[in-house]
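Consider a typical record:
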Amino acid sequence: MNERMCELAEMAKQVSISTRVVLSRDPKDDHYLALCKEVKADFLVTGDKDLLSIPPEKLEKNGIPCRILTPQEFAER
């Protein structure tokens, strides 16, 4: 792993999700959105086209404060 990935791995923690979210075209992806909402994530990094297609306004309206980025977009930050 590169240095940045090691830093992120050190910050990881296990979280129980009590929030239910229904936003994605693919219902299996809603779990990731619920996790983002629960932990107030800044970013969701993914290559998943269904998640990447969700408009930021829709996330905000549903109390999800994160930006959904591709791995490349995140690495370029």
